[in-house]
Here is the input.
Amino acid sequence: MSVVEPGTVSSSDLVGRVKRLLLSPSAEWERIDPEPATIRGLYVGYVCILAAIPAIAGLIGGQVFGHGIPGLVTARPALAAAIVGTVVAYGLSLLSVFLLALIIDALAPSFDGQKNQIQAFKVAAYSNTAGWLAGAFSLFPPLGIIGGLLGLYGLYLLYTGLPRLMKAPKDKAVGYTVVTVICAIVLFFAVSLVTGAIAGMAAFGGLAAASKVSGDSGSLTIGGNTVDLGKMEAASKQLEAANASIEAGKDKPATSPDVLKGFLPGAVAGFSRTTLEAHSAGAEGAGMSSAQGDYEKDGKRFSLAVTDLGALAGLTAMASAMNAQSSTETETGYEKASTVGGRLVSEKWDRQAKSGSYSVVVGNRFTIEANGDADSIDQLKSAVAAVDAGRLEGLAK
Here is the structure.
């Protein structure tokens, strides 16, 4: 199939491409490599269609079966909130493909590949095929974990497609794939923050009701939550500038991972650090970096990580501007997210398993997260608080 402007293709061509990518990916990447294409054509003829599968399946599954443990705890989100969340998640999934393509293109020279935005977009679009199809399991939420496992096949699609389309040597394929996956994980985290923030606002009253615009303060109140329109505009401009900088290779480089390692304490809340590692990924404007330490005490273990989101900081800035809150209670724990002092904070704790996570976004660019086992959520909070957030904010400027 040749995906050309305007990008519409017959259903048989679409189905055939999907089947060949899943059953014989290497041969299909060879077909894809020389095909003429445009970003718009790929969006209209492939991405928009397949990305709708998990969005629609999740919406239907949540309304019919609810979320939770069947027979024990089941919650069905309000239809209006569910629709808003679905639309937002779908839109951001489309944006994620474009951002991932920029990352793939920017990384190419570092692995002796050739920069080519169209080829990079092909890789980003087609390697998501397995994940989008696996999203169909969201029709029955308890099977969502199976869909997630099947979606991992996308990593193999990425591994086979990257060197072929980006003209990277085969001996660099593993490194290219690993670094791209690291960047994709950070991208997923940032997009999830925005999705959760908007969905949270919808859950607290809906976007269509109880809304009020204040001309004096430049804010929008939705269901009791106030959105700072000035910050939203600034965040949008930040995203646009980041995309332009990535394309031009002039974005501010990510913080050195060795510098981030210096933020992790040797001990915290009675836990001693047992390992310390750092990673960096990026080239020509798509830089990201992180440092992580493992902490142990009396058989319990959690990780503490500091990550520089780099060019993706605009996404967290947008989420922060939404000033949203959400909260979910279960029989054994809770999960909540909020904006505290201009910082995005997320918290999750299972009292029975004595495990959870606590994270803070600092300067709309750095994330500090503690994740794992502890005596209480307070120990994870103490671990995050032990990282000098003020210094990180200074680096973010």
Remarks:
- Residues 205 and 223 are 4 Å apart (CA to CA).
- The mean pLDDT is 73.
- The longest strand covers residues 271-281.
